[in-house]
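Reproducibility note. Readers wishing to regenerate the assembly model reported in the main text can use the exact inputs given here. Chain order matters: entities are listed in the order in which they were concatenated for prediction.
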Amino acid sequence: MPPVTPDVVAKAELHLHIEGTLEPELAFALAERNGVPLPAATQDELRAAYSFSGLQSFLDLYYALMTVLRTEQDFADLADAYLFRARGQGVRHAEIFFDPQAHTARGVPIGTVIDGLCRALDAAPGTHGITTRLIMCFLRDESPESAVATFESARPYLDRITAVGLDSAEVGNPPSLFREVYALAREAGLKCVAHAGEEGPPSYVWEALDVLGVDRVDHGVRSLEDPALVDRLVADQVPLTVCPLSNVRLRVYDQLEDHPLRRMLDAGLLVTVNSDDPAYFGGYVHDNFTAVRDALDLDDETLRVLARNSFRASFLDARTREAYLAEVDAC
Ligand code: ADE
Ligand code: ZN
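Running the prediction on these inputs yields the following C-alpha cells for the assembly.
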C-alpha cells in the first residue's frame, strides 16, 4: 500500500472513468502485450496530443487509446493502477464508471470487462485500503436500443453493479432518450446517475432529474444558468459530482480561477470534487482539491466540507458512511 501523507484528507471519489485512468506508460505496455497499434510512437508524443478543444476532441483520443484493453488481466491491471494512485491521494472509497459498449463494440465480451475490473476491486480493501462500487455507463451517442441491449447483456452481473450512468458526447443526445433503460435499471434495484450540464444546457439536467430520476448529477455546472434549477437541486440536495481540472481541460472554463465551485457551494448545492479522467486532465482527485484551493482561495474548512460531501453523496450504507465521516473529522 502506498504511504498516505498526513495532510491528505480522506475522501470518496464519485466521478471517475476507469478508462480515463489509462496512463501512457500502461497504454504502451498493454499495446505491446496485445500487439495493438497506438496513435503515437512514444509516451511523450502521446502526451503532446493531450490538448483538447472540447469534449469531442478528448473522446476521440480516449476511445482510440482504450483499444489496448483486451483481456481480463488488462482490466484488472488498469483498475489496480488507479487504486494504487488513488490511495496516495487520500481516496478511501471510489465509485467507478466503466463504458461496456466501448469494449463490446470491439469484440471484448462484457464479462471480460466486469470480471477483470472486479478482480482488482474485490481485492482493493486489502491491497489498497479502498472500498469500491461499480457504475455501468451507457454511451449517449449510441442508440437507446443499444443501451437496453447492453443492460440486458449485463443482467448476469448485476450483483456487481451499484448504479447506471450516461456519458460520452452530450450535446444533441439528451437524457430523455434513455428513459427506458433507466426504468429497467431502477426496476432491478440499481441507483441512477447521469452526466448532464457539462457542455449541455440546464434542460438536460431537468431531464436527468425528472425523466431518468437520477440520484446524482455528474458535472451539472451549467445548472447555474437556471435559478429555478438551482433551487430544485438545493431543495432536494441532489449531489453534483464536479470535476474542476476536467472542466478547464475541456474548455468549459478558460481557467480554474473562473470555475464556479465556490459559487455552487455558497448557493447551498451539495458539491463534490472529482477527477473524471485523471490520466488526461493533469491530476488525480487530491490534485483537483489542491488546484481549486489555490485558484479559488478555499480555506481548510471548505476543503473539509468537500471531503464530507463526497461521503454524504456516496452510495455507501449509513454505517460505513458514518465511519468514513469520522475519519474526515479526525484528519
Ligand atoms: N467519458 C469520459 N469522460 C467523459 C466526460 N468528461 N464527459 C462525458 N463522457 C465522458
Ligand atoms: Zn465524466
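We highlight two features of this model. The two ends are 19 Å apart (CA to CA). The mean pLDDT is 97.
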